[in-house]
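Lecture notes, continued. The same structure-token format from the folding unit now serves as the input rather than the output. Read the line below as a description of shape only.
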């Protein structure tokens, strides 16, 4: 349904009046998101996850690459139609919800702009959806600040779903919530996925959360995917040293600490990515060729891996 091919987003930042630097925030990712499925996106802070989200929503114009919705480009189906199909849930609903508007008005607004429904029909639809996400009609006339964090995220979900999108990008949707509330909101997202047939792109730092909700997982490093494929494969036998490092250093994964976990160290800047394989400076398996040649993302069993030494790594697991 959603197909992304070699998508890139570079930012040009002025360092000095006469010097500009390119930040390769997103440096060529490709994937396919089928109907009703979830692609989990993981990687350290700054690896380009939110840039991917904003570019997919077309809030940012891609530097290059293609975004295809049902095999059509955004230009072909039109920006407005595209936006009806793909919506976003943000990490911090407080910053993304207008504090001067009541919940009901926040959910009604997209219908007022995009449909010819009567006032009453719009209110009925909004109340029905709010109830579906767990906000009773008696709570629907409150302002966002009167809600708890969990309720606010439910409101954010209702706003994202009111126009009936088929795909939703969730950028850290539960990381601002108390742990006790996280599971409730995640279960709501999973219920909605099942009843509405939604596809999700689910971005999170928390591998436990990502492995719970995803069908496929993409591991990003400095704007690129270093490994991607079915969740079961990536969880059972991660191939890329970076995937292993992430897995081993995650508190929510009950894996013994591996050699790779100790090697994580500091993340290089996307303004000055290392030559060759961008992971080589942190990689415990790096060899001279890793400094010179960037590995391609190639099939390895059921997954795609960008590493020159997948065979060596296999023996090491
Ligand atoms: N508008 C912008 N102008 C310049 N650089 C940007 C812009 N937006 C993002 N970047 C840079 O692009 C890189 C990727 O940022 P992005 O926000 O996508 O990372 P992220 O993976 O979402 O991180 P986090 O986990 O902290 O949310 C970072 O180095 C960031 O500083
Ligand atoms: Mg982000």
């Amino acid at each position: 349904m959603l197909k992304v091919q070699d998508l890139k987003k570079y930012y040009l930042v002025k360092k000095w009046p006469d010097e500009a630097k390119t930040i390769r925030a997103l440096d060529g990712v490709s994937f396919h998101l089928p109907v009703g499925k979830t692609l989990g996106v993981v990687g350290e802070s700054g690896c380009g996850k939110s840039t991917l989200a904003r570019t997919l929503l077309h809030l940012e114009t891609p530097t290059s690459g293609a975004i295809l919705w049902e095999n059509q480009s955004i230009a072909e189906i039109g920006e407005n139609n595209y936006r009806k199909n793909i919506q976003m849930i943000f990490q911090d609903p407080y910053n993304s919800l207008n504090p001067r508007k009541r919940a009901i008005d926040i959910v009604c607004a997209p219908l007022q702009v995009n449909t010819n429904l009567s006032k009453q029909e719009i209110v009925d639809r909004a109340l029905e959806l709010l109830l579906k996400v767990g906000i009773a009609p008696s709570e629907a006339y409150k302002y966002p600040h009167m809600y708890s964090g969990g309720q606010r995220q439910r409101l954010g979900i209702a706003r994202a779903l009111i126009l009936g999108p088929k795909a939703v990008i969730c950028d850290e949707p539960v990381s601002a919530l108390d742990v006790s509330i996280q599971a409730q909101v995640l279960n709501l997202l999973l219920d909605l996925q099942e009843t509405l047939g939604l596809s999700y792109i689910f971005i999170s730092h928390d591998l436990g959360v990502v492995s719970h909700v995803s069908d496929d997982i993409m591991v990003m490093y400095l704007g690129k995917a270093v490994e991607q494929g079915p969740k079961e494969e990536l969880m059972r036998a991660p191939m890329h040293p970076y995937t292993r490092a992430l897995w081993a250093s995650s508190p929510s994964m009950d894996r013994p600490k591996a050699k790779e976990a100790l090697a994580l160290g500091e993340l290089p800047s996307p303004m000055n990515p290392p030559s060759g394989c961008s992971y080589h400076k942190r990689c415990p398996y790096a060899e001279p060729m890793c400094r010179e040649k960037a590995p391609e993302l190639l099939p390895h069993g059921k997954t795609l891996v960008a590493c020159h030494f997948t065979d060596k790594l296999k023996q090491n697991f």
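Point for the exam: The radius of gyration is 21 Å.
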